[in-house]
Automatic annotation (TrEMBL):
Transmembrane segments: none annotated. Coiled coil: none annotated. Gene3D superfamilies: Jelly Rolls. Residues 42-103 form the Cupin type-2 domain. This is Cupin. The lineage of its organism: Bacteria, Bacillati, Actinomycetota, Actinomycetes, Mycobacteriales.
Length: 131
């Protein structure tokens, strides 16, 4: 068993290749082989969001602070709040992040295959984000 204590993990910024705005990973964790689960705590400042992406086995998000938005391609944008648990289906394009006025933090958990946990795609445009 491995225990990572709060504050032990040095945070790092989200890559502009995958995120728009100020995004910080404050924890990262993964199972030892043969497990293939990875997760992290991700903090989004107001206006920050992921790019469009999908996951080979889906993704679970647990909102721990603030208010955000998420959207699956072809569906309406949905507000998410502290305590909400979002289950993103396998191989469905989606994005998630803070609202334009408030920050949001979530824990993200995904399972990968051959080291691939997400298929990152193009940025969410301001028009897509705000509608």
């Amino acid at each position: 068993m491995r225990i990572t204590r709060k504050g032990e993990f040095p945070g790092f910024p989200g890559s502009p290749d995958n995120f728009t705005g100020d995004v910080t990973f404050t924890d990262i964790y993964m199972t030892d082989e043969p497990g293939r689960i990875v997760g992290g705590t991700v903090k989004f400042s107001a206006g920050a969001r992921t790019h469009w992406h999908s996951h080979p086995f889906g993704q679970i998000l647990i909102v721990t602070e603030g208010t955000g938005w998420t959207q699956c391609e072809g569906q309406e944008r949905v507000e998410i709040n502290e305590g909400d648990i979002i289950t993103c289906p396998s191989d469905i394009r989606h994005w998630h992040g803070a609202t334009s006025a408030t920050g949001m933090t979530h824990i993200a958990v995904a399972e990968g295959i051959d080291g691939a946990y997400a298929d990152w795609q193009e940025p969410v445009t301001d028009e897509q984000y705000l509608n």
